[in-house]
């Protein structure tokens, strides 16, 4: 039996057990997948416990992604580039390797909906951990430009300075945005607080994909995009895609995602 878990605080709401159970069925592997709550100060103790109980690895969710990176002995390039990790693998020799599949998760889900990201213009809203993870993977797809906008402008500038060798990154205020974009990604947590973002309408065309990383709720950002005739997507597909990448790391096989996404969308809408 392959034992896996997701560690979070909170963790009750996590859809990872359902996603991984569907993937495991598809791949013909047996898994046990648990939700593990950790007190904020106990993360490394929680991980060590799982390792001692012969778990093969764990997913890590909010707020432990940075600690997961720090806990690991080795880092895959995906984690090294952003300094946060959401997948841990426990090795036979007792060491732990950290990966980050969040970035490739959003790239895969956006590409599924809009085609190649190469040469597309992206407006990325936010400059926290979620934005950082997405930015690195998006830049690897060679978009024509990524414009970063954040409520606290200095954080967007810091992010630009960290990644500007990897592609064409600019920073802007909301008011100064002047060009239409192919893709707008909301990586802020504004949707969770039901707050509207002051995005000027002229960044939208009917072809623009407005993508909110939040899932399971229609955020003010997505409502605004819909009202103005743009394409919209929540972040459920990203969640499924990052999990599929996790399967590739743990089992060497990337499962098919479309049917799992459809099943999950039904579950979330109930
Ligand atoms: P995460 O790891 O989920 O990205 P974070 O690092 O706390 O979490 O970042 C949250 C992001 O959402 C930040 O970009 C934050 O903007 P600030 O840097 O100005 O704090 C953004 N954010 C949160 N609430 C927001 C709101 N109501 N309006 C606009 N941006 C908001």
Number of strands: 12
Give the CA-CA distance, first to last residue.
Answer: 31 Å
Radius of gyration over C-alpha positions, nearest whole angstrom: 18 Å
Q: How do the SSEs run, as a string of H and E? A: EHEHEHEHEEHEHEHEEEHEHH
Mean pLDDT: 96
Instruction: Report the uncertain regions.
Output: none
Characterize the main sheet. Answer: 6 strands, mixed
Indicate the structural class.
alpha/beta
> DSSP strand (E) fraction?
15-25%
Task: Give the strand order of the largest sheet, numbering strands 1, 2, ... along the chain.
Answer: 2-1-3-5-6-4
What's the helix count?
Answer: 10
Q: Helicity level, as a percent range?
A: 25-40%
Task: Sum this structure up briefly.
The chain is an alpha/beta fold.
